[in-house]
Design a protein that fits this description.
The protein folds into 2 domains: 173 residues, Aldehyde Dehydrogenase, Chain A, domain 1, CATH 3.40.605; 166 residues, Aldehyde Dehydrogenase, Chain A, domain 2, CATH 3.40.309.10. 34% of the residues lie in helices and 22% in strands. It contains 11 helices and 15 strands. The chain has a 7-stranded mixed sheet, sandwiched between helices. A 5-stranded parallel sheet has the order 5-4-3-6-7, with helices on both faces. A hairpin with a 2-residue loop joins strand 1 and strand 2. The radius of gyration is 22 Å and the shape is globular.
Length: 358
């Protein structure tokens, strides 16, 4: 298959997997052009600054996936297939149905470029020329210590995201914030933990709680493990106690369940959520960067409202890899610079050809 054929097949199959959002064959070919300079440069020699170059995939690629980000795993696999590479996919022990279904549905010509396993495969680590690793810091560190110096190593560790409401006089953004928080049960790196609000943050928390409740009716949260449910019960009890002694704290929660929780604090410092649709609403601080504290180094995305260039510039002091409108946080374009880096360029090497014009 040439690049355009791979792109068409991947886009057609990707349309059957909603977590991927909308992606077309043209979108995928454009990523190749943006990052590698020519839409057909993976197919053979193409003009390049007075000579000719051919981009070749660094392969095989080993993808080590985590259980809480199937959509990120799908995107990673699609990029590897778009390059035409051989892909080894280490799944979590419990599997990832979305990735397994995607691999099974691949057409001839792509299906044989994917191998899946729920168990570690030493030969995969030995033979792969690139490792893409998703997971906790401990997982990343484990693979980093085993990576050889000549290996292409892409790490996707735990990240945090947040929303910033600079102005919402019409009260529109709480619906979109609730969607960003609730999708994927807050498990992805693009899921906001906090919403910082200019103006009446407490009133915003009331509206957000209402929208969280409505989202739960439309799309119920998955069943939690006992440990996950216990974390929510514990944080709710802590904030109920604080509310009883501090009027600057308020909590709204789903009745008779742990389905969703909204916590308001007058303290603008960033609070890390225990996930599973537990969100904090905070007043917007003057020093946005300082309010992040140690979490600053882990910021992945910032959802803003309204999404104007001026507000994007204000949020850029946090140096996230992505700034977008609230309601779009969970739907990044394929061309976004994940971890602030290009996603295809590092997975290609170059062969140059200089013809003899004598």
């Amino acid at each position: 298959m040439i690049t355009s054929q791979r792109a068409a097949a991947l886009a057609q199959l990707g349309s059957r997997f909603p977590p991927l959002g909308q992606v077309t064959a043209d979108d995928l070919v454009e990523i190749v052009r943006l990052e590698l300079g020519h839409p057909e440069i993976l197919d053979g020699f193409r003009p390049y600054d007075g000579h000719f170059s051919h981009a070749v995939a660094v392969e095989p690629i080993l993808h080590v996936l985590s259980e809480n980000t199937p959509h990120a795993g799908l995107q990673s696999l699609i990029r590897g297939l778009l390059l035409g590479a051989m892909n080894f996919v280490k799944l979590p022990r419990a599997g990832l149905p979305e990735v397994e279904d995607f691999a099974e549905m691949l057409p001839t010509g792509l299906k044989d470029r994917v191998r899946l396993s729920r168990e570690p495969r030493e030969e995969w680590q030995r033979d792969s020329k690139a490792w893409i690793v998703f997971g906790r810091d401990e997982t990343i560190a484990h693979f980093q210590t085993r990576a050889s110096p000549d290996l292409v190593f892409e790490a996707h560790p735990h990240r945090v995201s947040l929303g910033i409401v600079f102005d919402d006089s019409q009260g529109d953004s709480s619906l979109f914030a609730a969607e960003d928080i609730s999708l994927f049960d807050q498990k992805g790196c693009l899921s906001p933990h906090d919403i910082s609000v200019a103006g009446d943050a407490r009133d915003y928390a009331v509206r957000l709680a209402g929208e969280m409740a409505r989202f739960e009716l439309r799309s119920p949260r998955r069943t939690l493990s006992p440990a996950e449910a216990a974390n929510i019960v514990e944080i709710r009890a802590d904030y109920r106690f604080r509310r009883a002694n501090d009027e600057r704290v308020e909590i709204w929660e789903s009745p008779a369940s742990t389905a969703w929780t909204v916590i308001y604090e007058d303290n603008p410092l960033f609070a890390s959520s225990c996930l599973n649709r537990v969100a904090f609403v905070k007043p917007l601080p003057e020093d946005i960067r300082g309010a992040l504290g140690p979490a600053l180094r882990w910021v992945a995305a910032v959802g803003i409202w309204p999404a104007t260039p001026e507000n994007a510039q204000r949020a850029a002091v946090l140096q996230p890899s992505r700034i977008c409108a609230l309601g779009r946080m969970q739907n990044p374009p394929f061309a976004w610079h994940q971890e602030g880096r290009q996603t295809l360029a590092r997975l290609a090497r170059w062969v140059d050809f200089e013809p003899d014009f004598r």
